[in-house]
Each structure stands twice: as structure tokens, then as C-alpha cells.
Amino acid sequence: MAEKKATKAKTKEEKPKAKAAPKKKPVAKPEPVVEEHVHEHEHDEECCCCEEDGDDPIEKNSCRSYLLRDIWFEGLNQVVEEESAPEENKQEMMFLTLSNAILDLVMDIVPLQNAQMIAENLDDFLTVTVVNREYNVDLLQMFKEDFVKEKGDTFEDEIELNNALGEFEESWWNAPRKDLKGKSPNEALDEAAKHYDL
After folding, report:
1. Are residues 138 and 96 part of one domain?
2. How far is CA 171 from the centre of its chain?
3. What's the pLDDT tens digit per position in 81-98?
């Protein structure tokens, strides 16, 4: 898993910077009509809608959720309500429909190469999560603890750390473990990916 991620990280390419467009002369534009939007939630100290813009793209996700609700909820709700499925299945249908729509959105708005990288990282994250839940383990924490036991936690520089990680992770991710019922972490992850057709 960590080995796979390390490989993926190396394949990222810097996007070429766009050339600056020639400056245009300012043209008088009519004032836009701004529709006031009121969030139906309590604003507090931790509310991202009340904060200045930050560098973390996750910070505004709760605000994006309200925007997505305004765009999608009514239509999705109508589609689900019109389905002839039993009432108890409709919440699951809504969740699956919304999840699929969000994943499509995220991967449609970036270049194909970036979408492939997002998909691979998301698949890795989801399979680790489902393996952790199925076997009641924490793979990444186990990896970290086992690495420190075998290699220590002090290194001269990043090169020495990376060399130690490279040596360790190849054997760790492929070694059978009792807490995974005799499977290696990679076998458990591959099994989970195959189960969900990832």
C-alpha cells in the first residue's frame, strides 16, 4: 500500500503554467444582481463560512455541502421518491446516488491524469478502511509501529529514511499476519478491491 503510493507520487507531473493573457481595456459592465443566500445552520467559531479564505481546500467543504444541497437535493429526492423501492431502501438509494454524483463531479472537473491519480488514491484509502473495519486493525498504525521497532525513529537525513522505508515496506506489505487471518496486507487489500470491483 505505502509502496504503491510511493510509486504513484513519482508519476505526478507539474502542470505547465498558463501564459498570462494580454491585458484588456476595462469595459463598463452592468452591476450584477446578487441573490442573497441564507444558510439554514447555526454559525459558530468553527464555521468555515465565517472564516477568511485559507490554504486548506478542505476548510470550505461544509459550505460546499450547502451549495450542493441547493443544486442537487430537490432533484435527487424527487427521483428517489418516485422509485418503487421499499421505503426502508430509499435512504440507501439517496446515499448511493449522491455519492456517485459527487465522485463523478470530482473526477470530471480535473484533467484525466489527475482524475486517474485521485481514483487510485481514493481506491487505496477505501480498501485500507474496509480492511481495517473487517479485521478490526489499523494497517497504517501497525506499519508505523513495526517500522520503528525494526528500523528505529532516528535517521541522518531524508535519504536514509527513504532507504529504510523502501527496504522495510516491501517485506511488510507482503508478509502474512495473524491479525489478517494469515493473509498479507497486500492480499487483504487486493481481496477487498476485487470484492468491490475496484
Report:
1. no
2. 27
3. 888 888 888 888 889 988
